[in-house]
Amino acid sequence: MIRVLDKSFEVFITKEEIQQEISSLAGKINADYHDRDLVFLSVLNGAFMFTSDLMKKITLDCEVSFVKMSSYSGVDSRGQVDELIGLGNNISGRDIIIVEDIVDSGITIDKIITLLGPEGAASVKVCTLLYKPDAFKGKKRPDYVGFSIPNAFVVGYGLDYDQKGRNLDTIYQIREQKKQRNSMLNIVLFGPPGAGKGTQSERLIEQYGLIHLSTGDIFRANIKGQTELGVLAKTFIDKGQLVPDEVTIKMLKAEVSKHTNPKGFIFDGFPRTIAQAEALDVFLESIGASITSMISLDVAEDELKSRLAHRAKTSGRPDDANPEVIQNRINVYRNETAPVKDFYKSQDKWLMIDGVGTIDEITTRLFTTVDAL
Ligand code: IMP
């Protein structure tokens, strides 16, 4: 799986499959246009990569030109004028193959063919790598089609998502949105320092529309806003004591009730004790919800230490640089989470994700796990 901007995509057509299909398309064109005066008109931007690979397999004596469709506001009846930029004077009496990366609604191709009309080509055919028959509502169906694909957004191999992803050598399809849940998705996310919990929770929040609840943030907001609970919490924090569970859970309740119809929550840094986990269960039950799962990101200690040492070089955080401090933070994490982990394990809600790999690999594992919940 890959990310392009804010969306996730999964492999749809591999580079090998693309190349194989291009060879077969080129074979057909080579046979059909033997001894003809052929000009390929490649439509920028998307078709640049397909055109490049296709041309390497065309054995005919032909020409290749690049055109670009442009629409600007003009004074015709529709208020829109279409223009084909880059079209020379070399069309008349010649055989044309328009090369497209994708034919979707077919509107672009119809416009190009209309614009080519006065040029007096001997013939005009369309070769496209991808074709979405279910989306097509145009007049001119493509003559040479690499792959007929379902009506889902694709990216890569020249095709973009908001101008990104054109350089990918594989074609990716947008990842299906998760199936509709009929209950809230409430996740307790745990991970030792350096496990990538921050990055992964951001992605979970975005993918599943969750609300992030960090007790640290809630404390700070309440203290800053001088709420009754904030003032109370501050008295403990100022004495260097832990805020009692009762106060913490009250703040959390207040925070949860701010949201109407939430899709779910990610609990970050909470619950830290069995008492908190129990109190959270009671509270969620009172609003007709429950914890869906506690997910731990698993990373071996040696890997954590080397990641934190690496991060220290750029983060400037002194607590990342000192091996003793790092060891202590890891120990605290393990001791602290062990009982909470056992609590959720006993409810059959504890899951562990391998936290070693690229950020995208770990996201894929997480999404796959969450989708199955
Ligand atoms: P048309 O709907 O056939 O006119 O296609 C218009 C343009 O939409 C194409 O040339 C592409 O630039 C873009 N397009 C259509 N479907 C996709 C897709 O799935 N991914 C990326 N671009 C697309």
Walk me through the structure:
It is a single chain. The chain starts with a strand and ends with a helix. The mean pLDDT is 88. The protein is 40% helix and 23% strand. It has 12 helices and 15 strands. Helix 5 crosses helix 7. The protein has 2 domains: 173 residues, Rossmann fold (3-Layer(aba) Sandwich), CATH 3.40.50.2020; 185 residues, P-loop containing nucleotide triphosphate hydrolases (Rossmann fold). 29% of the residues are buried. Strand 1 and strand 2 form a beta hairpin. The chain has 373 residues and is an alpha/beta fold. It has a 6-stranded mixed beta sheet, sandwiched between helices. A 5-stranded parallel beta sheet has the order 12-13-11-14-15, sandwiched between helices. The radius of gyration is 29 Å and the shape is elongated. The structure holds inosinic acid. The site of inosinic acid (IMP) has 12 residues, from strand 6, helix 3 and strand 9.
Q: In CATH terms, what is the fold-level topology of the largest domain?
A: Rossmann fold
Number of strands: 15
Which homologous superfamily in CATH is the superfamily of the largest domain? P-loop containing nucleotide triphosphate hydrolases
Query: Which second-level CATH architecture of the largest domain applies?
Result: 3-Layer(aba) Sandwich
What is the gyration radius calculated from CA atoms? 29 Å
Q: What is the spatial order of strands in the main beta sheet?
A: 5-4-3-6-7-8
What is the number of domains?
2
Uncertain stretches of 5 or more adjacent residues: none
Identify every distinct bound molecule in the structure, by name, code or SMILES.
Answer: inosinic acid
Write the element-wise H/E pattern from the N-terminal end onward: EEHEHEEEHEEEEEHEHHHEHEHHHEH
**What's the total helix number?**
12
Beta-strand portion reads 15-25%
Shape: elongated
Judged by helices, strands and strand pairing, the structural class is alpha/beta
Let me know the average pLDDT: 88
Tell me the span between the first and last alpha carbons.
19 Å
Name of the top-level CATH class of the largest domain: Alpha Beta
Q: What fraction, in percent, of the residue positions are helical?
A: 40-55%
